[in-house]
Amino acid sequence: MNFQKLFSGKTIVVTGGCGFIGSHLVRQLAALGASQIRIIDSLKFGKAPDLETKDAQVTLHKLELGASPSADIRAACRDADYLFHLAAEKHNSCLDDPARVYRANVIGTHELIASAVAEGIKRVVFSSSLYTYGRMKGEPMSEDEIPIPRTAYGISKLAGEQIVRMFHVDLGLPAVVLRYFFVYGPKQFVGMGYKSVIIKNFERLLHDEPPIIRGDGLQTLDYIYVDDVVRSTLAAMASDISFDILNIGSGTGTPIRDLVELMIAVHGNRVKPIAEPPDFTAGSSRVSKIDKAARVLGHTCCVDLIEGLRRTLNWMQTQREWAVRE
Questions:
Q1: Which of 85, 191, 287, 288 could form a disulfide with 47 if both were Cys (CB 3.0 to 4.6 A apart)?
Q2: If you ran DSSP here, which 8-state letter would residue 273 be given?
Q3: pLDDT at 91 over 90
Q4: Strand 220-221 vs strand 254-255: parallel, antiparallel, or unpaired?
Q5: How far apart are CA 22 and CA 85, in angstroms?
Q6: What 3-state class would DSSP assign to 140?
Q7: pLDDT, tens digit, for every residue of 150-175?
Q8: What is the pLDDT of residue 325?
């Protein structure tokens, strides 16, 4: 796909553009020649962008979906061409304040999409989540199965999907829903609101502490490097899909104990992991089926796990937060 041709000179709205995935997406859109990139972000899980771009005008609209005035959301969408909706209250937030999750992810998404349609935005890509499926075990997750979310976050993301579908059916809005699996890579934590097992265990290794494995370490996750996620997100916007829901993952499950061994090898310090009691993830397997995304988007993983871990560690070593203790 010719991303340069599609995005060059365009005005693009990115919600959550100061977060982990969003900041990578904004930087790539700038490199592709977008003339204006408008970020909508509350800055609760991110920080203001520091982009060195020659041509793109990047502006930040500090707004909270579901809480800020609808008129301000609509103004941020005015005269824009495309909308990438990545902003969301995260999974961990639902443990403390599920109402906030519903307000941001459901009401906020409805207000945002309504604003985008009213302002003539041509196409929307909505980032959803594996948490819509609800299950923790079994065969790779397929877009054809009936989702039964078990958390406030999963429920809110499924509701967001249906809101986007409603605007497509009723008003003809072209849209693609992407169910992201376990995304990792540089910028995953500094100010971003959460730490993955990769960040947590690399942090321990950088501080000369052994990594931790809970239970038998056979719990299996589908890891995908952030650059591959951004590439597929751009491809979804560039596609001619009228409406569809697609998994974005590697399609490969990696047990935690194997992941930790790879991390130790990448770090180079041969230490023995610490075994801790199992948690709620014991016996789980959350892996994507990516045949559909490969067929309609050309979705592939160009960065294998070892290389992705190496890039993540190299970035962490440049951050003051993870400097080796004296």
A1: 191
A2: P
A3: no
A4: antiparallel
A5: 9
A6: coil
A7: 999 999 999 999 999 999 999 999 99
A8: 43
Under 8 Å between Cβ of 218 and 181: no
Instruction: Say how far apart CA 25 and CA 49 lie, in whole Å.
Output: 12
CA distance 22 to 46: 9
Alpha-carbon span 109 to 122, nearest angstrom: 17
| Nearest by Cα to 238 from 158, 163, 298, 165 | 298
What residue type is 150 in one-letter code?
Answer: R
Q: CA-to-CA distance for 110 and 250, rounded, in angstroms? A: 30
For the chain, the first-to-last Cα distance in angstroms comes to 49
Residue indicated by tokens 């100010």 = 191
Domains, the chain, in order of start with CATH, read 3-182+225-248 (3.40.50.720), 183-222+252-322 (3.90.25.10)
The residue assigned the tokens 């819509």 is 132
Q: What are phi and psi of 42, to 5 degrees?
A: -80, -15
Task: Give the SS3 label for residue 300.
Answer: coil
Distance CA 159, CA 53 (A): 36
Q: Return the bridge partners of 43, or none.
A: none
Q: Which band of pLDDT confidence, cut at 50, 70 and 90, is reported for residue 310?
A: very high
The pTM of the full predicted model, rounded to 2 decimals, is 0.94
Per-residue tokens: 260 = 């930790």
